[in-house]
Write a structure and sequence with these properties.
- The chain is of the alpha/beta class.
- The protein is built from 9 helices and 13 strands.
- The strands form 2 sheets. A 7-stranded mixed sheet has the order 8-9-7-10-13-12-11. It has a 6-stranded parallel sheet with strand order 2-1-3-4-6-5, with helices on both faces.
- Strand 12 and strand 13 form a beta hairpin.
- Helix 1 crosses helix 9.
Amino acid sequence: MIRVFIDGAAGTTGLNIHRRISQRKDLSLVVLDEARRKDPAARKDAILQSDVAFLCLPDDAAREAVALAGDANTVIIDTSTAHRVAPGWVYGFPELFGQREKIAGAKRIANPGCHASGFIALAAPLVRSGLIEKDARLSCTSVTGYSGGGKKMIAAYEAPENEERLRAPRLYALSQAHKHLPEMAKICGLESAPVFCPIVSSYYAGMEVIVSLTAADVKGSLEDLKAVYRDAYPRGIVRFAEDADEEGFLSAGKYAGRDDMEIGIFGNEERLTLVSRFDNLGKGACGAAIQNMNIALGLPEETGLVISED
C-alpha cells in the first residue's frame, strides 16, 4: 500500500486532495490528529514514513517542511509557489516537451500555479517551435472562479450579505506582481513575464486563460500554430480542440469538476486569440498534483482523475 501524507490538509487544496486519496484503494493516508498537525516533529515523522507527501501550505511553511524532510526518499509535491522556479525541483506540468520523463524520476516536484498552467500550455509550445520569439512581450487575461482564492475568499463570496457587492467580475493583482509571473516566464523560456490581468468572478470553479496575439507577434500562420498544438497535445489530459466555439461564446466554467484542459485558437491571420479552459481546482491544482503523483509512482497518470471521454 502506498502511504500518502498531506501537510496542510485543512486548506482548500489539501481538503480536495484528501477527498481524492480517500477514495482510492491503492493508497493509504498518514494522518496527524488536530493537536499534532502543526508540530514540526510530528510533521517530519509523517513525511519520513510516507511514500508521497503533498505540501498544501503557504510558501514559508512549505520551505520549512522541505527542510524537515532533508534528503528523505519521499516524493514531495509542493502545491505552493515556493519551489516552482527553484533549482533541484522539477516543474509538474507533464504535457511540456520532455517533462513527463523528468517527473517520473523526480523526488521533488513543484505543482504549477493555476493561472500559470493555462498560460504555459498556450505559450510554451509556440516559444519552443520558434513561432513566438523568446523576447516577445505578451499579454494574458485569466478568468477564474472564486474557489481559487481559498477558504477566506470562498466564505466571502458565499456570504449572503456580499451577493450584490461581489456579483460582478473583479480584476486583481493590479501591481503586475502576481506570484505566478516568475514561472510563467521561466517555464515558457520567455525573457519577460507577460502583462497579466487575472479576474475573479462569482462562480465557484472553472478557469479561462486568454493570450491575444497579432500577426506581428507570430512568425507563422494560423495553420502553423494549429499544427504546433496538434503535435503538442494530440489527446490526453490536455487536448487541442479544432473547434470549441459554443455558438459564438466560450464558457470559463465548461471544465468545472474535471481534471483535463482544452486548448483552442480563434480569430484570423491578423488577430488571434489563444484560449485554455480547465478547472482551477482540477488541472489548476489538485488534479495536477494527483497526476504528478501517479507519474512519479509509475502508475497510469489518469488514475483517480475525472477526464472527458469526448
